[in-house]
Amino acid sequence: MRDWSREHHVRVAYTLPWSFSPPDRAKAYQRLNAGRALRIAEFLPILRDARLGAYTVREHFADTDLHLTAEGAELRTDETADLIKHWRVWTTEELGQAAHAPDGAQAGKNTWSLDFPVNSPPHVLTLATVCNARRWPFVCTGA
């Protein structure tokens, strides 16, 4: 995928699924997701979702812990578009530190901490949703 993308001048990145996480379990879920992302990073860059897929605002989810409400989807779409537009991605070192960091530990030199407020505005959305929303057509175009 990396080679094809490079040859065709297309950027491809993975984004972690965003799911509801009770505040008392968010850090453990972030560590789990960081480990998953680290394995995927062998093949694709990972968009830099500072929450690593764990989001604690129940009101932004509809019928399941994975389906966002319209308000949640709009917030996430805007944040994801910004990550793509500015090409903010995790390094493998940061993901490795996050996967093994104890609760509240600093996960990088001066980059971020697992101790951020997980109920602040969301950061990622799947690329398909960004494209389907057609709010950010630059995301969907390639070579």
List keywords for this structure.
143 residues, two-stranded parallel ribbon, globular, disordered C terminus
Explain the overall architecture.
- It is a single chain.
- By secondary structure, the chain is mostly helical.
- It has one domain.
- The protein has 6 helices and 2 strands; from the N terminus they run αβαβαααα.
- The protein has a two-stranded parallel sheet with strand order 1-2.
- β1 (19-20), α2 (26-40) and β2 form a beta-alpha-beta unit.
- α2 packs antiparallel against α4 (92-100) and α3 crosses α5 (127-133).
- The protein is globular.
- The two termini are 15 Å apart.
- Residues 105-143 have low confidence and may be disordered.
What is the H/E order? HEHEHHHH
Tell me, rounded to a whole number, the average pLDDT: 76
Largest sheet descriptor:
2 strands, parallel
Low-confidence stretches: 105-143
Lateral arrangement of strands in the main beta sheet = 1-2
Radius of gyration: 15 Å
Tell me the number of strands. 2
What's the helix and strand layout?
Elements: H1 2-7, E1 19-20, H2 26-40, E2 54-55, H3 70-85, H4 92-100, H5 127-133, H6 137-140
Parallel strand pairs: 1-2
Helix pairs in contact: 2-4, 3-5
Q: What is shown here, in short?
A:
The chain is mainly alpha-helical and 143 residues long. Helices cover 40% and strands 3% of the residues. The chain has a two-stranded parallel ribbon.
